[in-house]
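re: the backbone from monday

yeah here it is again, tokenized this time
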């Protein structure tokens, strides 16, 4: 109310960057990785994983709660049980591409707001740190936001400002966190399927 509509537009721009990055990973980066493994059109598999696992995860906002959905989908796809019984629960804990995007983008937003210069090597280091830190994000709604102070500390940003960044994350969290979880969870079963299919192709060759 104090800042007016301009503040809402700024939130909208930030949300657009976050969602755009997540959609880019889901529909460009992941299909490239899957094609590299299975050597055929990856999009039918990508779409099936997103439409079933991703859609459910979007509403639950919890990778852990989506484990049964992913296991059912793995069974439907005819994947090796010995593989998916390990990879899917493990992926719900450490496969956090969406969380890495959230940590990186929100930290860079804080850095830009404070006028701190960022070099390309520093941005790369931030991305690597975010990807590693995201493995420790809890599989519950808003879990990645609690790791933002760690990323902010790379730029000497104090805890008070980092807490404000977390608050911004909660403001846009309904869409951001839902999309983040959809990416995280659907990728678990997608990469499991890609590995199983690649192994099957290798055995049939």
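seq for it, each position gets an aa:
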């Amino acid at each position: 109310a104090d800042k007016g509509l301009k503040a809402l537009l700024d939130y909208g721009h930030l949300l657009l960057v976050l969602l755009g990055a997540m959609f880019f990973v889901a529909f460009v980066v992941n299909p490239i990785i899957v094609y590299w493994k299975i050597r055929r059109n990856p999009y039918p598999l990508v779409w099936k994983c997103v439409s079933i696992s991703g859609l459910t995860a979007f509403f639950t906002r919890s990778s852990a709660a989506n484990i049964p959905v992913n296991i059912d989908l793995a069974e439907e796809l005819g994947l090796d049980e010995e593989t998916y019984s390990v990879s899917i629960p493990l992926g719900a804990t450490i496969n956090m591409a969406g969380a890495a995007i959230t940590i990186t983008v929100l930290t860079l937003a804080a850095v830009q707001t404070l006028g701190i210069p960022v070099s390309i090597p520093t941005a790369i280091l931030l991305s690597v740190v975010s990807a590693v830190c995201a493995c420790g994000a809890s599989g519950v709604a808003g879990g990645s936001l609690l790791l933002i102070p760690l990323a902010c500390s790379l730029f000497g940003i104090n805890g008070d400002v980092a807490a404000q960044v977390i608050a911004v994350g909660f403001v846009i969290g309904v869409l951001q966190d839902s999309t983040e979880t959809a990416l995280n969870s659907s990728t678990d079963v997608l990469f499991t399927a890609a590995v199983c299919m690649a192994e099957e192709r290798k055995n049939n060759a």
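The two ends are 65 Å apart (CA to CA). The mean pLDDT is 87.
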